[in-house]
Structures are given as C-alpha cells and as structure tokens.
Specification:
The complex is a heterodimer of chains A (about 110) and B (about 110). Chain A is an all-beta fold and about 110 residues long. Helix content of chain A is about 0%, strand content about 55%. Chain A has strands at about 5, 10-15, 20-25, 30-35, 45-50, 55-60, 60-65, 70-75, 85-95, 105, 110-114. In chain A, the strands form 2 sheets. In chain A, strands 2, 4, 5, 9, 10 and 11 form a 6-stranded mixed sheet that branches. In chain A, β6 (about 55-60) and β7 (about 60-65) form a beta hairpin. In chain A, about 40% of the residues are buried. Chain B has about 110 residues and is mainly beta. In chain B, about 0% of the residues lie in helices and about 50% in strands. The termini of chain B are far apart. The model of chain B has no long low-confidence stretch (mean pLDDT about 95). The chains are: A mainly beta (about 110), B mainly beta (about 110). The interface of A and B includes residues 44, 48 and 88 of A.
C-alpha cells in the first residue's frame, strides 16, 4: 500500500529550541494533516492543509503543504515541555480515487528537556 | 459533547476468547473508522464504514468483524483473539465532506 516517510523518527531537544519534521511520499497528495498524540490518548488534529504551497499556523506550530504536493513540513517554535508527544502526518492522495481514507506516517517522537 | 467515545479503555483476553470493542460518536458524521496502532507501525486501518449500513475492509482486516449498528455506533469484534492482536485500537470519524478525522481515546488490548 501507499507509504508516507516521516522523519526524523525521534528528536531530543532543549526547551526553547525550534523543531522541524517532515513527511514525504512518492504519490501526489490533495490533503495533508498533522496530528499530535500524547501518552495514553488518541491523536488530536493540529493542522489541516488543502492547497499546494499553503502555509498554516496554529499558535507556535506552522505547517506547509509542499509545492510538489508530495511533501509536508511541521515546525514548532520555542518548544516547551508540554510539546512532548508523537507527531503524525497523514494524507489523502489522488491515487486513492476519491476515497476519504487517510495514509499515516509512523510518527516523530518528540522529547523536550526542561 | 463527548465527541468520540470508546469502551472499554483496557482489556486483557486469553487466546481464543472473543470480545467486542464499542465506539460511539455524537458528531452526526457519516463515516467511522477502526485503526490499530502498534509500536513503530503507525496507524493501520482495519475496517471502515462510509455510511450507516455499509462496511469495507481496510489494510489489516483479518481476524476482525465490524457492525455499523446505526449512525452513531460502530463496533469491532474479535471472534477468537490471538496474541498478534495485542494493540491499541482507535475509532475515528471524519467531519462530513472532509478528510479531517477525529479520534477516540483508544482501547488498550492485551491477548495472552
């Protein structure tokens, strides 16, 4: 099946640092979504992107829909301890023929040291 | 407004036992999904239901059955549990005419 390559797999950073993670695919996507999952909880939607080149912010989080439609980036500025969790990218590609199903990346585990 | 609820939150089964995981949404969405999450594997689709009365297989359907009881409820059944089904199970529902899926809190299942 389709795959999303999400990197890095894990990050260990100091509080206050900026974070960047990305997802890439060999297929063209029409939607990119970014989720955060905290321990013992379900994923929570952070940002949704629908247009190539789109740049959207949610507080200290900024995500971009790549211009090639094959990638997306998530940046977190001035990280704080509550940013800890696993961040997932997800998308719907044209190859899915109109299906609303999503493909998920394997996640980036973020650890923030106070 | 609870959004998406799942029961139970935790469950331990012995190999061969059966159980049903329950999911309910109060968002009036048409579609509902069941995923499993395993370490390092991300989220994998088991079954989904595009509307009341319809269900379709996802990526990993073997060993599972589903029932879309009504618009609100979508259940996942394990007829004969196996250790390979030890996982965290999530129910999700996308906003109508959107790809934005909203997840429940999960059911943590261990099969011994």
């Amino acid at each position: 099946g389709q795959q999303l390559n999400q990197s890095p797999q894990s990050m260990f950073i100091q509080e206050g640092e900026d974070v960047s993670m990305n997802c890439t695919s060999s297929s063209i996507f029409n939607t990119w979504l970014w989720y955060k999952q905290e321990p013992g909880e379900g994923p929570v939607l952070l940002i949704a992107l629908y247009k190539a080149g789109e740049l959207t912010s949610n507080g200290r989080l900024t995500a971009q829909f790549g211009i090639t439609r094959k990638d997306s980036f998530l940046n977190i500025s001035a990280s704080i301890p509550s940013d800890v969790g696993i961040y997932f990218c997800a998308g719907n590609s044209f190859a899915q023929g109109g299906s609303e199903k999503l493909v998920f990346g394997k996640g980036t585990k973020l650890t923030v040291n106070p | 407004n609870a959004g998406v609820t799942q029961t139970p939150k935790f469950q331990v089964l012995k190999t061969g036992q059966s159980m049903t995981l329950q999911c309910a949404q109060d968002m009036n969405h048409n579609s509902m999904y069941w995923y499993r999450q395993d370490p390092g594997m991300g989220l994998r689709l088991i079954y989904y239901s595009a509307s009341e009365g319809t269900t379709d297989k996802g990526e990993v359907p073997n060993g599972y059955n589903v029932s879309r009881l009504n618009k609100r409820e979508f259940s996942l059944r394990l007829e004969s549990a196996a250790p390979s089904q030890t996982s965290v199970y999530f129910c999700a529902t996308p906003r109508t005419d959107s790809y934005e899926q909203y997840f429940g809190p999960g059911t943590r299942l261990t099969v011994t």
